[in-house]
Amino acid sequence: MRQPDEDEDDDDDDRARDELLDSDKRTKLTWELNRGIFQILTLVFNLSFAVLPDRIHLILKNWGKPGHIGEGSAHYPTDFSRDILPLPCHSHNDYWRRVPLFNAIEAGCIGVEADIWLIGNGLYVGHDLQSLTANRTLSKLYIDPIVNILEGQNPITSFYNSSETRNGVFDTDPEQTLILLIDFKSPGAALFPHVVSALAPLRDRNFLTRRNGSSIIPGPVTVVGTGNTPFELVDSSTANPDGDIFFDAPLGNMYEEAEPGELTDTPGRSKRQTADPAPAPQPSNFTSSTSASESPDSYTSLNSYYASVSFSKAIGHLPTGKFTAHQLDLLRGQIRGAHRRGLKARYWDLPFWPIGLRNHVWNVLVREGVDLLNVDDLTGATKKDWGTWRGWWGIGDPV
Length: 399
Known about the structure:
An eight-stranded parallel β-barrel has the order 1-2-4-7-8-9-10-11. A two-stranded antiparallel sheet has the order 5-6. Helices cover 34% and strands 16% of the residues. It is α/β, with parallel strands linked by helices. The relative contact order is 0.09. It starts with 5 loop residues before the first helix and ends in a 16-residue tail after the last helix.
């Protein structure tokens, strides 16, 4: 019988070793494959909790829909502005927004602005004549929508008689008035009686703030005239018989010095420090928001609501990115004068760039007592996450 030689033994050893290695590879591959399948199943299992809602999320998603919990209860008569908190901001040039009036209300702004022109007997809304269209009138963009909103906020139901109270546009604060600032672009004397007539739908429903002798009866809407609005007509019981149009008084003329020992809260200043010396006269190019020439004491809460002025002309620019002591004194004195007269201080023509400087100016105005911020960026103003501005070079203390 033939005996296997050494070469055949070596071949057998190699085959055995190869088979063993192949077996190890298959075992390792099988283990890796099983681990991968397990990881995939684990991922799918975990994602199912994120993607597939549990019962409470299903309830929240479908609440109020037919066949679900809360059926027929999803809406209530005054839910137009549910969850919207009113904020002290004024929607500058509101008619430029994609949806005039409603964008501002959605953001929580309590003030909106409409520039109006008298063409024939119509009141048209727009920044200038070339931007006017037949459909964009004061009634269509503002008066009629406001009436519609307020009728919804003051329903007549078996539970409520709207003749007893007058709710405003904000469901979270029904007593908050909506300020409609009407900027007279055409000559005021001709335009004024048309504005009085246009407000009739609001007036007839008792929706307007008005004066009654020596008192003010608040309403869901407060109308304020600015631009070419004639103060003498606003203050006239003949031209403004219901007293429901108020004036935008010249804030720049209302500076008053601080009382001795008046408290301040500005960083770096003593709590008992008095104001800086009275400011120098306004520059020759200074103009208020109105053309009125009356004494500052002519403006009271019985004929005026706002006291406004151009920030750049009344306070000036901020070349260092911060307010000087003199500028802060001007700011405080003007706000002080407005508040003493029962008026709400407002500055327009604010810096809009860089954003950090704009936010810094907003912070200072709010801190010093301005009643409404005049804003173009509704989102930036209402989120109130304005950061800290330390000047153009990013150093020093905020002022």
